[in-house]
Amino acid sequence: MSRDEFQNRELDEEAQLLLAIQMSMDTRGAAMEDEDLQRALQQSLRDQDFQEEEVPLQRALEMSLRHPWADDGTSSAQEEVGDEMAKALDIAQLTVLAGDETSLVVACAALRKAISGNLSTMTLDGVHNFPRKMEILSSLEKKHQVTITEYDGQVHIQGFLQQPQRCQEELSQILKALHVGDRLVTLQPQQMAVLIPVAETSEEYTRVVRPFLSTLYEQTSDTEVLQVQKVQNPLLYNQYQLKKQSLRRRSPQTAIERTLYHGTTEDGAKEICHQGFNRSFCGKNGKS
């Protein structure tokens, strides 16, 4: 091999070595660039996820700071909320937060004990069969928000605060009203709630309609009274008379009767005629 050939071969080997080194550096650089790009992409995705989580959180915070009706709420939305609030009047929901299961069990037991301490039970003896017994007891349960159980002529009334005592007193008055001497007053099923139309030409019709229309002010001309009905419900009437007598004894100089106008649904009107009016109807379809 001549000297020139040797030098050329050596140059070729050096060139190949330099080329290999350069390619190695290029590959490493590309890998580093890929890693940097991947890292930047992951950071971008994390930022995007954070922003996506932050937007609903911010929106929820803004909504919580607004007035309940400040948004584009409509009357129907208010009625729905009012209905839900009315349904939840006698329901309390407690959320217990604890660090571990043991603390949670202890807290729940303490809550149950505290709540049970406010429960009271009243007993009424001598409650045997009487007309519309189940309906009357069911009505009293709804009215006083109590639980009534009956066995072998004895009634147990359980509830909070003074409600059981009030229920017991009213049940005693009802039982007295249902008995005339030793004879039990019989209430026929059709007598529980009877609707009687009031003639438009009668004085009673005028006494009912005129005060009602006077409360409508400028809307009187746009209001048409289709029919006036009188409700006859012996059970509710007896309860009302007993309550009125009790109030008169306590406050003989005070006016104890007032007139209430309150809107309601057709089903609500039927329930009122059979079960009576209570606070669960308040705020649903009108203001008193």
Give an overview of the whole structure.
With 288 residues, the chain is mainly α. Among the domains are: 120-187, 2-Layer Sandwich (Ribosomal Protein S8, Chain: A, domain 1), CATH 3.30.1370.10; 190-281, Phosphoenolpyruvate Carboxykinase, domain 3, CATH 3.90.228.10. It is 56% helix and 10% strand. It is built from eight helices and seven strands; from the N terminus they run αααβαββαβββαβαα. The chain has helices spanning 3-65, 75-87, 101-117, 133-144, 163-178, 203-214, 234-250, 266-275, and strands at residues 119-124, 147-151, 154-160, 179-180, 183-184, 194-197, 229-232. The strands form three sheets. The chain has a three-stranded antiparallel beta sheet. It has a two-stranded antiparallel ribbon with strand order 4-5. A two-stranded antiparallel sheet has the order 6-7. Helix 4 runs antiparallel to helix 5 and helix 5 packs across helix 7. The longest helix is centred in the N-terminal third of the chain and has 63 residues, at 3-65.
Compose a concise summary of this entry.
With 288 residues, the chain is mainly alpha-helical.
Relevant terms:
single chain; 288 residues; mainly alpha; Ribosomal Protein S8, Chain: A, domain 1; Phosphoenolpyruvate Carboxykinase, domain 3; three-stranded antiparallel beta sheet; two-stranded antiparallel sheet; 7 strands; 56% helix; transcription corepressor activity; transferase; Mono-ARTD/PARP; NAD+ poly-ADP-ribosyltransferase activity
